[in-house]
Amino acid sequence: MHLYDIPAELPFLDCLAAGVLDALKDRPPEALARATILLPTRRSARGLRDAFLAAAEGRALLLPRMRALAGLSTEDADELALPALLDLPPAVAPLTRQAVLTGMVMRLPPRHGGPATPEQAWGLAAEMARLFDEVALEEKDPDLLSQGNPLAYAEAWLARLEALVPGEQATHWQITTTFLRGVATAWAGWLEGEGLLDIGLRRVLALRAQTEAWRSAPPEEPIIAAGIGVGGTIPAAVELLKVVAALPRGAVVLHGLDRAALGQVWDAVSQAPTHPFCSQARLLADMGVEARQVRRWPGCGLHQPRAVPEARPTLLEMALRPPEGMAPWTVPAPASWRAGLHGLQVLAAPDAQTEAAAIALLLREALEKPGARAALITPDRDLARRVSAELIRHGIIADDSAGEPLGQTPTGTFLRMLARAVAEDLSPVPLLALLKHPICAAGMARADFLDSVRLLERRVLRGPRPQGGLAGLRAAIETLSEGASKPKLVALHAALEAALGDFASLHGAPRPPADLLAAHLAAAEALAATPEAPGGLRLYAAEEGEVLASHLADLAPAMARLPPLDPGAWPALFDAAIEGIAARSVRAQAGRDAGAHPRVEILGLLEARLLAFDRVVLGALDETVWPLATDPGPWMSRPMRAQFGLPEPEARIGRVCMDFFLFACAAPDAVLSRAARRGGAPTVPARWITRLETFLSGQDLKLPESQAARMAAALDQPADVLPLRRPSPCPPAALRPREISVTEVATLLADPYAFYARRVLGLRKLDPLDADVGALDYGIIVHAALARFVRDVSAAREGWPGDDAARTIWAEAAEEALAAQGPRPALAAFWRPRLARIGAFVIEIERDMRRDGHIRQSWVEREGRLELPRPRGTVVLKARADRVDQLGDGTLAVLDYKTGTLPSTEDLVDGTAPQLPLEAAMAWRGAIQGVPDSPVRALTYWKLSGGETAGEVKAMITEPEEVESAAEDALDRLGLLVDRFLLGDAPFTARPHPARSTKGDDYDHLSRVAEWADAEGEE
Prior knowledge:
- By secondary structure, this protein is an alpha/beta fold.
- It contains 41 helices and 22 strands.
- The strands form 5 sheets. Strands 3-2-4-5-1-6 form a 6-stranded parallel β-sheet, with helices on both faces.
- Helix 9 (199-216) runs parallel beside helix 10 and helix 32 (742-750) crosses helix 33.
- Mean pLDDT is 87; it is low at 71-81 and 588-592.
């Protein structure tokens, strides 16, 4: 047999190309074009093409046929696509299989373990499809497979499965096998009726058909299988490789097989599924070949070496040996192992983001060498995305081989947002996320559309949620006052209504998924349209558009196979239907015209096989990431898989361990990278790093540490830290307000910057989206109820209408206040008992005060305005008094309602809470609308919580002389304040008095209080 090997330290594709060219150097040019080279991936085929061109040194070449056989491993099996396959029935389309299996799975009721929702059924169908493929790919009985009968084949493997456990054991296993038998039998019958083959079965039959074709009629041209079998092969692939190796002009080229070192432990290696060479050992055993029969590939001495130390593979092989070959571990020989550490480093980052920044630096550093190529190899897509983002910081756009999940591309995100927004009745958050997506325009010019959306957000969607759906939006818009903005909102609503069409609601009777998909896509195209471009053109125009359009085209007939479902389940099912599909996306290249850098790549494990670089970073070397946790799957335990004839789950660790071994030897400069924490949780180093460090420590050696993490951290550290100064804006006199309300005086005193931000800059905190009706709204409700109650009671003859009438008045006032504020039903039900308790308290207090004539008249919610002449000008003091009572002796009492904490008497006296004294001063001067100018006898707070203690009357000051003194003091202090800030040139310094607390913190982020307070030592 023609079996060869290319050592791990040599560039595989360069050696392969050099050997092929040397073997055909005396043949005519077309001889190379007649050769066929089978490779594991399309990327390796492109790499071999480049290797041929480099080896030709400028000469024109007719390149050989290079076929990618990603399908020879259990996970990645694919069709051979050679002439012998044309007689086989076609394979079922993957999405059609998924949909048909989903419909079959949904027949199992949830009470018997069936899926509860369609998306769960979709996921379970995917697991069943993987099982069917794995069973077919690992089948060792060629006679059973050669029948090509789906029903007979299904019956055979189901019988083997049921025989694994006696019938009297494990009731749950009996349920599982009954379920599998029902679905598998129905699936086989469906395939037979459609004249199709299952995907896995056809792949195996394709391999066997090609095997028989080459066995019966050996081709005259060269056939080379290169780099296949490194990660393990299925039985049909073993037969194919065996035939290729036996062809007169055939060859099988392995990678990294250290025959000399492994000869001592070869038997142990083949029994250790987690060992990197276990797959190749089993491959050779299945082919009936011994390791000593594998020869060195002739092209190994014909290339320019990349200077990977020959001792590095030897060092790694020793560190990864099974227990039977660990005797050399006990023999210290640091001099013989030190050479293997040349060019090898370990990067230990504290977290995933630091790891990504450090890797980006390492890749950027590699480009300093002219012509050097660098790559990150990792199975962790999160790390790949982080590194891609960090590389943009250095002006590098890296080609990520895995692309971006289709559901996370801009177009995929838009489609998912649309489904979610409709399913949630166009509630504010998902609706705005949809409308602000760059694709959305609803047939309008994008700029005009965005103006209308922002207007809708401010006028309708901020604050409590409006009623659901398009009808709720229309009702909310109609309640707005007439103005220039209302027609824009009406036009926006009409555009949305026209665009959504049949997809405006996901409620009601079950609908066929195919109809839901059609309505979904029609709505998406209508929403994406602009006057300049139709929606379909914009929706599928991006780099991922072709992949998305193709996937959706395949999805439409697949969805027709599903039964009608609850429309509310559509968003989750749609998410599941586009999950797992990847596409290239321009999102990482936003704002950049340049393409991907030609010398930097980000690769997954499969895509990186056989490639060589000048620097390679192996990222995310942590347990459960690289390698992944072993999982036997939902159908069989580990012993049952072995009895059935499926490979052990640990074999996957052996495959990715071989990847680790070869990638660590793929470049002169190799960095093993890991993070101490991922997703906020601590990690465990990959077992291979632990073994390597343990072996080296026994040799008194240590892996060199990369300094990239330290350098990456230094990138964001300033040379000097300059504390931020407390802001003190000083606007010109023309911009300083000449009016101030009594509630703003405390703010101006405690935090002039907050007053400046509100009154000078005109900044107001936006209401939150989809806001819960909270404490502020409760206070508004209590104030409104009290205002109406007091007005109606004051209008009664003889001062009091009677207890029954008063209770009726309160009940009507409370319901009117609740309705005006519009809380959700649950909150309204929560607040009604509290309002009832407040009502009982208020009725008792009012009855006692009004029956004996203590109160003559009451004024509620009255505006006040008082001009304050000052040396530099006049300032107007404004107020809105909650309540002013005229007492029996003609004096006045000023009341304020609070639902929260009350200020103390000291706060009134020292000016911290000047509201009541200032209102008293205004009442005394007749500055409150409708209230006669009379002395003020009392300043009182009513605390109305509605709790166990429904209310409390707190008289702050009860003597006219004391009230007058407090009022005049408050006016004097206000005069000094306005002289400094409103009429003077004093800066509006943020929080100048640390001892004075402010009401609210709406402007603290603008003043950056957390920064300067820390620098000044404040808390």
